[in-house]
Design goal:
Elements (H helix, E strand, L loop, with lengths): L20 H23 L9 H6 L1 H4 L1 H19 L10 H11 L2 H13 L5 E7 L5 E7 L14 E7 L6 H4 L3 H7 L6 H10 L1
Antiparallel strand pairs: 1-2, 1-3
Helix pairs in contact: 1-4, 5-6
């Protein structure tokens, strides 16, 4: 089963000025496409070629480095695009807001801790808000294209929000200022989508 690049749920320029058009074009059309292409090459003709993306990601560390890197890249980016919306921003509400306040003290404190997780990730990687085995919200980060669903994850959880902190996600607009990117991205986070994932878990 060959994987394909999912279409963005909005135009490349929809997230301006917080995420610029050129970054979106390159990030989606070049970087994400490369992960899809390389994942297909990695599984072609193997016992894994008919597995779902979720199955590949769950056992990525045991399968191979190319599947770990490119399967993770495909899963993570597909998840990431859905986090974002031109009508995003604001604050979460309902049960999600209550859970954030309970876990982190307040929404502002959550944002501070989430940003710290992203800024503190050395090199390339991701920062996640997830639900752990005890059904509690947690913040964690992963290197490269790993995610908390993988067999190799240091912190296991079910992600409900993930933000890419690879330089290609922000460098054209924010240069080396990762904290500025992480501050700006709150303006386009789709809290309805995050709440939908929260409710599903």
């Amino acid at each position: 089963m060959a994987f394909t690049l999912p279409a963005l749920p909005y135009a490349h320029d929809a997230l301006e000025p917080h995420i610029d058009t050129l970054t979106m074009q390159i990030h989606h059309g070049k970087h994400h496409q490369a992960y899809v292409d390389n994942l297909n090459k990695a599984i072609a003709g193997t016992e894994h070629e008919n597995k779902t993306l979720a199955e590949l990601v769950a056992h990525a560390g045991a399968i191979s480095a190319p599947v770990r890197n490119n399967g993770g890249g495909h899963w993570n980016h597909s998840f990431f695009w859905e986090n974002l919306s031109a009508s995003g921003g604001g604050v979460p509400s309902g049960k999600l807001a209550d859970a954030i306040n309970h876990a982190f003290g307040s929404f502002e404190e959550f944002k501070t801790k989430f940003a710290a997780g992203g800024v503190g990730r050395f090199g390339s990687g991701w920062v996640w808000l997830g639900i752990d085995a005890n059904k509690k919200l947690c913040i964690c980060s992963t290197p490269n294209q790993d995610n908390p669903l993988m067999d190799v994850a240091e912190t296991k959880c079910t992600p409900i929000l993930g933000v890419d902190v690879w330089e290609h996600a922000y460098y054209l607009k924010y240069q080396n200022k990762r904290p500025d990117y992480l501050a700006a991205i709150w303006n386009v986070i789709d809290w309805n989508k995050v709440a939908e994932r929260f409710e599903a878990v």
